[in-house]
Each structure stands twice: as C-alpha cells, then as structure tokens.
Amino acid sequence: MSINSSSANENHYHYEEFLSESAECPTCRGLGRIRKGAEELVALIPVSDSRLKPRKTVLYVVISVAISAIVGGLLLFFLISRSITLDSDQQLITPSLLKYDNISNTLLIRYQVPINVSNDNYLAIKVSKLSLSSLLYGDSLLNSSTNYTSLTVPMRSIKLHYVTAEITVGSSPSIKPVVTSCLSDATILWKLGMDFEVQAEINYMSHSETTSITLYNRKVCCHVPDDKSHELLPPLALDCSTL
Description:
- The structure is a single chain.
- By secondary structure, the protein is α+β, with helices and mostly antiparallel strands.
- Helices cover 17% and strands 41% of the residues.
- It has a 5-stranded mixed sheet, with no helix packed on it. Strands 3, 5, 6 and 9 form a 4-stranded antiparallel sheet that branches. A two-stranded antiparallel ribbon has the order 1-2.
- 16% of the residues are buried.
C-alpha cells in the first residue's frame, strides 16, 4: 500500500531546467554546466601530454645556479681582503736639516724615512695617517711624529711615501756622548744606529685597519763640520754614502 503511494507521489514531480541557455559540461562528469554553443571550446588534455610539462626546466635551473656561483665566486675573489704591507730597503738616511747648538750641546736632525706601501688587493686603498717612532740604538725613544696624508695606492701596486721626523740628540745626559761622536773627525762615528717603528692607518671599502713595521739598524748621518756647526745644512752638503 505504501509502495504504490510512493510511486504515485513520484509521478507528480518532474525535472525543469532553469538554465535554459546552458548545456552539460562534457568534462565535469555531469557536475557542471557551460554556456550553450561553447561545448566545442572545451578541450580534453591528458595528464601525460607534453604540453603540460615545462620544457628544459632542469637546464634553466642548472644554468641559473652556475651563473650565480660564478658571479658570487668572482665577487668573493676580488673583494676579499688581502695583505697590505709596509717596507723600506734604504739603510742609509741623509738628513734634510742639521743644526748644532754649542750652548746646550744638542744636535737637531730632521730626516725623511722612505716607506713603500704595498697593496695586494684588487681595489685601491687610502693611507690617512703614518706614524714614526725613532729609537736610538733600539733603546732610547727620541721622538714620535705623525704625518697626516691622503695617499692613494692603486690596486696591486706599490707606492713610495716619505715620513718626516725631527729629533734632538743630546738633551738627555745619557745621549750626550752621541753629539760628541757626530762632531768628531772619526768618520766611523758619523752614523747613528737607529730603529724606526712605522704605523699606518689604512681605509678602504668603509673599512679601517692599521698595519705596522719595525725597521732595524738604519744609519742616520749626523756629522757637522766645525765651520758650519751653527748652520742648517742642505741634504747634499752631507754625503755619508762614501763613508
């Protein structure tokens, strides 16, 4: 009795299409509809179709990684910090000024120490300050002088710079015999044995560093002739190279 009633009720229901301008989507498995007349625009492409696979993706990735590695390696090679050194091969230093004061028995010596600044980097560096400490016979500190400069050393090159210093010998009682030796007629006593401590302040790539060197056993000519003991002597008037 109930079954017949159900069949009768189902006959009262019918399907009515509300979207009269649409058609069933052929690729939606009956779950979707598309505009009528657009059925031919729907393409069925299998998953295995080569058009769905990017071409040469691995090749492009390998090339990109290789280019990045090469560029990074070159930047690292050229920008990595390398050594900056100071050196001087001049053993004998001729003063630019000599003055003997017979009242105080002191000797004023002004000289220039040549310093080679070597730059092994692949970019230019700038030397902003050079300091020089003069030690007599490696023991007594006579003077410390600072030369402010703006020396630019190009990449992979060496540049020469002169550091000027001035000392007064004889102001200390322990060093007064040195003045006597410089006034002596014995040529072997006309050279002062000195050590120089050189320190340079260097700037490059917004970076600042300090390098130093000690020059041992340099000879500074100090002879003052009796007839010119009160005069300033030009550098060429005092030649110790032949002594």
